[in-house]
Amino acid sequence: MKDSLKIVTFSSIVLASFFLFNSNVLAQKDFTKTVELQSIDIRGFVTNNLSKKDSPTLTESEKINTSGNLRFLMPGFPARTYATGGTYHSSAKYLTVADVNNDKNQEIILASFANGPLNIINSRGENIRTYDPGNGVVSAAAIGDLIYGTTYYGTIFGYHFHSGEIAKKSASNYVGYAPSMILTSDKSVNLFTEEQDRKLHGYDKLLGTLPGWPNGTGRSQAIMTPTIDDVNGDGELDMFFASGRSNGTSNINAVTYGGESIPGWPKSFSAPAGTFPVIGDVDGDGHKEIIFKGLGSTYQQYKVYIYSYEGVLKNSFTFNDSVSYGKRIALADIDGDKIPEIVILSDNNISAFNYDGSQVKGWPQQFSSRWTISSAPVVGDIDCDGKPEIIFTSSMPGNGMIGYIHIYHSDGSIPEYWDNDEMLNIGSGGVPAIADINNTGRNNLVILATPWDGYSGYKDTVYAFDMLKGTDDFFVPTCTSVEWGQMGADSGHSSSYKAN
């Protein structure tokens, strides 16, 4: 291992104690004083003792986080937000990462579960803004300094970071799924959201209804988060979205930016409770495909469908594992062939499929005795090895406090610097994010935590990690490559693959 890829940490004597609290096991650690200073490279190998003059100065809180996975925590994290009991938002939980105050750093935008406000956390772990439109925020998307979100009990809002609220309106009904935002060719920001009324709604910046909208499917009350991109290359945006399940089946609907139906659609298929299509050229033919998953012949098998823009089925394949409610697909170039693979988190496996249904070498990777209902995979280079990592969270079954962060290299191996089995107080977790949040030229890993001990109060809800923490910035290569960086690929949740 090259000296330029070393990271400084402290080894500590750890006294781990677990106790029962409100029917939940809380992972608690009691750390003694630092007893030895060592140099550890980013793969976890101890190489040599450092001299005292090389020792960085740590605060007491930072000393606590110098063991295990938490040694990579960035200063100021975990960040805290207020949590209450109540109705939780549907499908996977997530946070959004975007630069909303034009400071060249990325802010972290999240809702306080279950009835709390919108929170904006900066790269130092500080809650710099709280916005409460009422009724409990459940989801948000952001483009630039504009944030749009929904509340479970039926409020749609637009929030401008610098000037405050710009618009707010009542939805037709309550809202259960995240909206999508898009920046059009004329630089207009538009929002598309469901309102539990069997229709997808389109709004402009001030939440005025767009021409041609809403678009009704008539099949189910719920409409999933829409996927948005110019799929056929005509310069106009296209939208693909699933209706909720009715009598065991769902539809994938396709409409233009103007709300007109695209010929060849919709497609009906046997579906789990939540289905979210993604867009990308997964066969390398120069044309984007629409990819989504449904059920196979049983609930213990899922099926992947790959369609052309015109609605022609190009391929399909099955995999023997169940998929819980709401998990989203990611697209990412795992093997470096310049063609994105299909990354799917199921209940017992994380898989990386080629277009033909074969798995990328090293995949799938199996895990057991974990719940992954709240998460979905993200993909990006977080350790500057020049290759992407695949990351998701899981939780201990039946426990509101204990969760796990899973990291895999592109070849399916677990990084030597990380422990996928380390219990952390992240609850059921959520969809992670990968971004250079503090503008250092290297990616950070941001984790949504959703710990619940039965009591309202401030909880540690945002963890941010720097896998090269302590390394001299002068010697560290840049690594800002992100394949699929957050829920729906980007801060607008377009769910369309765009390699960077």
How do the strands and helices of this protein lay out in sequence?
Blueprint: E1 6-11, E2 14-21, E3 24-31, E4 36-41, E5 46-49, H1 60-64, E6 79-83, E7 96-98, E8 107-111, E9 118-121, E10 127-131, E11 137-143, E12 146-151, E13 155-160, E14 164-170, E15 180-183, E16 189-194, E17 199-203, E18 215-216, E19 227-229, E20 238-242, E21 249-256, E22 267-270, E23 278-280, E24 289-295, E25 302-307, E26 313-319, E27 330-332, E28 341-345, E29 349-353, E30 365-366, E31 378-380, E32 389-395, E33 403-408, E34 433-435, E35 444-448, E36 457-465, E37 482-484
Antiparallel strand pairs: 1-4, 2-3, 4-5, 6-36, 7-8, 8-9, 9-10, 11-12, 12-13, 13-14, 15-16, 16-17, 17-18, 19-20, 20-21, 21-22, 23-24, 24-25, 25-26, 27-28, 28-29, 29-30, 31-32, 31-37, 32-33, 34-35, 35-36
How would you describe what is shown here?
Strands 6-36-35-34 form a four-stranded antiparallel sheet, with no helix packed on it. It is mainly β and 500 residues long. The protein starts with 5 loop residues before the first strand and ends in a 16-residue tail after the last strand. The protein is globular. It is built from one helix and 37 strands. The N terminus is likely disordered. Helices cover 1% and strands 38% of the residues.
Specify the helix fraction band: under 10%
Tally of individual helices:
1
Q: What summary fits the major beta sheet?
A: 4 strands, antiparallel
Range of strand content: 35-45%
Query: Unreliable stretches, pLDDT < 50, 5 or more residues?
Result: 1-64
Rg calc: 22 Å
End-to-end Cα distance, whole Å, is 27 Å
What shape does the CA trace take?
globular
Structural class: mainly beta
Please, what is the average pLDDT? 83
In oligomeric terms, what are we looking at?
Answer: single chain
Instruction: Report the strand count.
Output: 37
The spatial strand order of the largest sheet comes to 6-36-35-34
